[in-house]
Structures are given as C-alpha cells and as structure tokens.
Write a sequence for this structure.
C-alpha cells in the first residue's frame, strides 16, 4: 500500500505531533468560545494616531481572536500577527509576562492556528500598534500549512476550488464579497422604498419557463414526477400580478444547464422585478435611477473604473434600437438586416458561426452578440428586439414584428433584460405553441407550454413591465472583476482529474 500525502508530508506530520502533544499535556487544541471585545482592523483604525505615551498612562485592555499569520520566536520573546475578519494586528509575547508554563505552549503553535488573546495595547519602537499578551489559548489547530508559505495563493484552480484558502491567503478577496453583500442590501432598500414587495417563488418547478435556456432535471420520489430547477422566476412572479400584488421583486438563484465561461455559471443570482401599470419605458427610467444610486452609495459619485476605463453611470443613457445598433456599430445596412440569406452571408464574411435552422431573428441576435454588444462600454439601452426572440413580451403597436423589450449593457456586458409583459392569454397560448414547434425542430432552449400560467392570464393580469438584472455581473462591474468566478464564492468547476 502506498504512503498517503498526509503521512509523507513532514510539515503535516509535525503538526499532527504537536496536536497530540497538546492533548497529552491536557490542552484542548480545539477550544470552545472566547470572549471577543475587539477587532484587529477596528483597533488599527481607532488608534491610528494615538501616541505611545497615551497607552502607557491609560492602559487599553483588549480581548481578540484570530488566525496566526506570521510568527517570529526569539527565545524568551516572540512576535506574531493575528488576523480576524477586519484585518490583522501584531501581538508580542514575553516569557516573563506570561510565565514559563504558559509561554512554553508557543512551541506548539504554527502559522494558521487560531488563538484567543488578551492583553493591552502599546507601540513598538518602529511605531507598530501591538498587543502585549497577558494570556492566550489555542482555539483551533491547523494541520495543513497555508499555501505558498502564506504569501499569497495565485493558482486560479486552487483559489476557486478551495475558496477558504483564497480568503486566507489573499486579503483582497474578502472585500469583493463584502461589496457584493452591500450591493444586495442597497438593491433591497431601493425597491422597498418604492413600494415593491420582496417575495419567494419555487426553485423546483413542474414546467421550466420564463427564459430560453436548458434546465436541470430532478425527480421527486414522493410525488413520482420530474421537476426542473428554475431557469427564471418570471412566470410565478407574473402570477402574483394576477393576484393583486402589483409591485414585486425577488433576488433569486437560477439554474441553467449551459456552458461555463467568464460571464456564465450554471447557478447564478438574479434580481427580477415586476411593476403593474407600467411599460418598458418606465423600467428604463427606473434602471437609470438604480445604477447611479448604487454607485453613489457603494463607491461614491456616479463614476467607476472597470479594467482601466472610466464608466460614467450618470443618466440619461443612450437608447439604440437593434436596427440602429447593427447599422451604426455593427456596420450592417438596414436592407441587409431584412433579408435572412444576406444575414447569413454577413455572418460568414465576419467569421460568425450560424446554424441552418436559425431564422432571421436568431441571426440578428448572433450578429448583435459578436459585433455590437462588446463595443457598448458606456451604459447603453438596446431596444425593440424581433418579436420571435421575445415570446413573453408585448409587441409594439406601430411595429408588430418587434417587441417592447430592452437590454442594458455596460462594459460590454449585458446586465439587464426587460420588456412590457404580454398579458393577452390567447396571444400567449399562440406564442407557446410556436415555441413548441421550435422545440420539435431541435431548439431545446425554446419555451415549454405552461397551461397553468395561461389559465392565470385568463383571470386577468394588469398591464405590466418586468426586468431581470444579473447580480453576479453587477458585482463584477462594481468590483472591477473580469470573471464571474471571482464574485461567486463557490463557482461550478469541472471535476479535478484524480479526484
């Protein structure tokens, strides 16, 4: 039988020996609670300008806990840095202060261990704020050394697979997720103040609807039926409009069985909201309020920097129809846009792969994705999409082949998709039937028929508009992150070879 990694690694063997020695001498290496009355980062901020003499005249007693990040033993004295959720602070241990027995425990402490510490503040000769330790206790023994001698974890695969190590080794990671939490809090406050009700809708659904996407399928044993992890909450949120809840929103988890790249993860977070008696123009105005509000409250001002480019979120934002955008940005004339065969030629000439079964609407969407969307760096609305791409949207009265729909782009990313909702049950049934025909022809992302949703519409749904905003991409924008994996704590990854 081969020797395992733990048995062959001398550092792990040494730490395990220290663990057993602590137990032998009656010290619990995995201690219980510790009274914490101070945090490292807050101490650094609060006493940044306090002179050394003040600490001597009025001792400031503290009790804190955290992970040992550095350790320098000088025999009868030792310096270490301890990190908690707010930052880190230096501690100073002396044998003549702690006593020989207590100080001797230091030889069992390694970088990565958790300690509880009591003491008082002082400044070293170099001016560093430090805790003179009067008492300490092991709280958790680390049996594995931190990565790369705790000077930073750069292997992207390890960072995503073992986020706990990423958070320990890279101090700049935690602020990304703190900002994510702040953004979500501000989003909630924004909608709460405008009379929207936060709701929850099913994550497991009998019909996967509300978006053009492939679902994940599961099976309910007790009910004896297939269920789908939701690809969108849309059809349930609109049922609530039928029921009289005329302003609703949900910050939800969606699941789509699609590819993984820098902007897509199979499990992702969306903000989706619906407003009765409104249309897509109202939601464009609301979106122009939301983004600058988030920027002011989270960053300050209405500008941010993304990958070296200044993004100005001040409204109003440009509004381009799909036709205008393809002409002005993509260089495709309006006559070419009207002809399916000519669009195929354009796509071939530009090196854009297309499928034979795609119609004019899908061809236009692919050309937009390749030629237009990456160029939309400053905030821009694209509006009036082909109706065949929008089976849940209301058509424009003056252009019935188009939908009252917009998508919002910034930094070349789609952040939002919205439309005036179709509330005619007969037309909705017709659209679903067209989607079923598309599925029969091989489009496995086409919408399924949802009889109960059509039944709900037959009871009457008020005119309304709805919008979805990708929270993960929003966080990417507000944290200057290039990959969605950087803003999801535990992104989905391919299985690692060898387990």
């Amino acid at each position: 039988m081969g020797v395992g990694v733990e048995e062959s690694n001398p550092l792990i063997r040494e730490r395990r020996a220290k663990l057993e020695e602590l137990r032998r001498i009656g010290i619990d290496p995995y201690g219980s609670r510790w009274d914490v009355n101070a945090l490292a980062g807050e101490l650094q901020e609060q006493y940044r300008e306090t002179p050394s003499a003040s600490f001597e005249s009025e001792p400031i007693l503290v009790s804190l806990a955290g992970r040992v990040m550095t350790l320098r033993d000088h025999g009868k004295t030792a310096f270490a840095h301890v990190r908690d959720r707010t930052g880190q602070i230096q501690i100073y241990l002396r044998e003549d202060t702690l006593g020989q027995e207590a100080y001797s425990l230091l030889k069992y402490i390694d970088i990565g261990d958790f300690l509880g510490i009591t003491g008082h503040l002082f400044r070293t000769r170099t001016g560093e704020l430090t805790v003179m330790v009067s008492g300490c206790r092991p709280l958790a023994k680390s049996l594995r050394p931190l990565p790369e001698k705790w000077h930073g974890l750069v292997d992207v695969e390890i960072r995503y697979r073992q986020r706990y190590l990423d958070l320990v080794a890279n101090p700049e990671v935690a602020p990304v997720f703190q900002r994510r939490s702040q953004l979500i809090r501000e989003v909630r406050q924004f909608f709460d103040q405008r009379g929207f009700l936060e709701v929850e809708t099913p994550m497991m659904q009998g019909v996967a609807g509300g978006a053009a996407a492939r679902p994940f399928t599961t099976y309910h044993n007790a009910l004896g039926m297939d269920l789908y992890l939701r690809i969108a909450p849309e059809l349930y949120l609109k049922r609530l409009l039928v029921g009289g809840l005329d302003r609703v929103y949900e910050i939800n988890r969606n699941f789509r069985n699609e590819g993984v790249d820098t902007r897509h993860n199979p499990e992702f977070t969306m903000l989706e909201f619906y407003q009765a008696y409104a249309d897509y123009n109202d939601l464009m105005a609301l979106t122009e309020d939301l983004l600058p509000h988030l920027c002011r409250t989270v960053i300050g001002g209405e500008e941010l920097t993304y990958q070296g480019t200044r993004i100005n979120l001040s409204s109003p934002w440009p509004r381009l129809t799909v036709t205008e955008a393809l002409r002005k940005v993509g260089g495709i004339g309006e006559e070419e846009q009207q002809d399916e065969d000519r669009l195929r030629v354009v796509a071939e000439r530009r090196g854009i792969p297309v499928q034979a079964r795609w119609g004019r609407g899908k061809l236009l969407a692919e050309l937009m994705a390749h030629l237009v969307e990456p160029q939309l760096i400053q905030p821009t609305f694209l509006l009036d999409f082909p109706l065949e791409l929008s089976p849940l949207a209301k058509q424009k009265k003056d252009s019935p082949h188009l939908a009252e729909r917009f998508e919002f782009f910034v930094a070349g990313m789609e952040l939002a998709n919205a439309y005036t909702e179709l509330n005619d049950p007969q037309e909705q049934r017709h659209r679903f039937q067209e989607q079923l025909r598309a599925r029969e022809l091989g489009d496995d992302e086409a919408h399924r028929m949802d009889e109960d949703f059509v039944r709900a519409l037959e009871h009457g749904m008020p005119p309304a508009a709805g919008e979805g905003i990708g929270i993960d991409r929003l966080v990417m924008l507000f944290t200057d992150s290039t990959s969605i994996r950087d803003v999801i704590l535990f992104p989905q990854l391919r299985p690692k070879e060898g387990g």
Notes: The mean pLDDT is 93. DSSP finds 18 helices and 18 strands in the chain. The chain has two domains: 5-145, 174-318+378-486. The domain at 5-145 is CATH 2.40.50.140 (OB fold (Dihydrolipoamide Acetyltransferase, E2P)).
